[in-house]
């Protein structure tokens, strides 16, 4: 069973790529007071150190050491491609270990998305043909 479903509250981890720091905050569902949201309904959180917007990395995010610039660059690239560390507590799935692994990882993700899109189109055509 997923650990986030059993107990909690588990906090979301927000990263500041400028300061290379992570701050934890309760999820929106557990917050009683009003929080600021952007136009997409995502929580707006500013870094307490530098006041730049922080990024919700998910509950399963493990921040690299502050001095590890290559790992922080890797995390920033992954986040920029929409890859986070959100899950039900079972782990976020495969993630590249090193910055040099990122291009191949992104290529595999893109290929998998293209294949799933092709599969969806095929299923729609079959359903249209049958129905």
Q: Which keywords apply here?
A:
single chain; 131 residues; alpha+beta; three-stranded antiparallel beta sheet; 3 strands; 34% helix; globular
Can you describe this structure in just a few lines?
This protein has 131 residues and is α+β, with helices and mostly antiparallel strands. The chain has one domain (3-95).
Radius of gyration: 18 Å
Helix-strand pattern, N to C? HEEEHH
SS content category: alpha+beta
Can you count the beta strands?
3
Can you count the helices? 3
Task: Please characterize this protein's 3D structure.
The mean pLDDT is 81. The protein has helices spanning 3-6, 69-80, 102-130, and strands spanning 12-16, 21-25, 55-58. Strands 2-1-3 form a three-stranded antiparallel sheet, with no helix packed on it. A hairpin with a 4-residue loop joins strand 1 and strand 2. It has one domain (3-95). It is of the alpha+beta class and 131 residues long.
Topology:
Elements: H1 3-6, E1 12-16, E2 21-25, E3 55-58, H2 69-80, H3 102-130
Antiparallel strand pairs: 1-2, 1-3
């Amino acid at each position: 069973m997923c650990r986030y479903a059993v107990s909690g509250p588990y906090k979301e981890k927000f990263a500041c790529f400028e300061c290379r720091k992570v701050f934890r905050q309760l999820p929106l569902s557990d917050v009683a007071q009003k929080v600021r949201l952007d136009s997409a309904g995502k929580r707006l959180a500013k870094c307490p150190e530098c006041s730049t917007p922080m990024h919700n990395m998910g509950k399963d995010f493990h921040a690299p050491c502050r001095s590890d610039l290559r790992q922080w660059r890797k995390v920033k690239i992954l986040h920029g491609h929409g890859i986070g560390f959100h899950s039900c507590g079972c782990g976020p799935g495969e993630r590249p270990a090193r910055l040099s692994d990122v291009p191949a990882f992104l290529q595999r993700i893109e290929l998998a998305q293209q294949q799933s899109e092709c599969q969806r189109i095929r299923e729609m055509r079959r359903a249209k043909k049958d129905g």
